[in-house]
């Protein structure tokens, strides 16, 4: 499996990593998103402590992930109900 050696800067540090070529864009985008939130929290709350800032960013992303997962679960339930309804209609038509 081919991997690329890249460095992703988060805050004031660079993190070397090896990634699949098809994941490079996603990894770099994630780094940019983290840095944007770091800047946002730094300016909004006037914090300079990188540990506090990173903790807030991690918390924010986790809340977003939980909300997304809950939405996906609701969509999944809706799709399952729709498929069951369509199957019932098809069974009646046969």
Secondary-structure class: alpha+beta
Main sheet makeup:
2 strands, antiparallel
Q: Work out the strand percent.
A: 5-15%
| Average pLDDT number | 91
How would you describe the overall organization of this protein?
The chain has one domain. The chain has 2 helices and 2 strands. The chain has helices at 24-45, 50-93; strands spanning 4-10, 13-19. Helix 1 (24-45) packs across helix 2 (50-93). The longest helix has 44 residues, at 50-93.
Blueprint of the fold:
Elements: E1 4-10, E2 13-19, H1 24-45, H2 50-93
Helix pairs in contact: 1-2
Short description:
With about 90 residues, this protein is of the alpha+beta class.
List the main descriptive attributes of the protein structure presented here.
94 residues; alpha+beta; two-stranded antiparallel ribbon
